[in-house]
Prior knowledge:
The protein is α/β, with parallel strands linked by helices. The chain is 38% helix and 25% strand. It has a single domain (16-133), classed as Response regulator (Rossmann fold). The chain is built from 5 helices and 7 strands, in the order βββαβαβαβαβα. Strands 4-3-5-6-7 form a 5-stranded parallel beta sheet, with helices on both faces. Helix 2 (52-62) packs parallel to helix 3 and helix 3 (78-88) packs parallel to helix 4 (103-110).
Amino acid sequence: MLASVGSVECSAVSEARIRVVCADDHPSVRENLRYLINAEPDLECVAVGRDGVEAVRACEEQLPDVLVVDEDMPRGTGLDVIQWLSAEMPDLPIILYTLNSEACGKAQALGAAGCIIKDSPYETLLRAIREAGSRRSVATT
């Protein structure tokens, strides 16, 4: 839909942002992820969770485009969440965000779209979110 303002036409429909849920048991990591994602014009953090149960609940309630989940969390590890949501929401791309590189193969075997090591630059995570949100193949680090 276009609206005419004087001689300038303005688009009333903006590009859709990629909606992201983040789950990590460390408050500083959760809030940093929320801030980082919301600072990007094409991304939006719609919910955060501090454990596996909250991650699943947030995904069920928000229906995000991408889930970024920590591996080591209480009440359901990231690998548990991948397994649960792969059955319940098979079209949801999930990115495991971890310090444990050995978990990456397990995550992908369970259906994760990708795995990003927490030591990677933030740009790597943002690129992975965009790739997953666009249903493209995610490069794993």
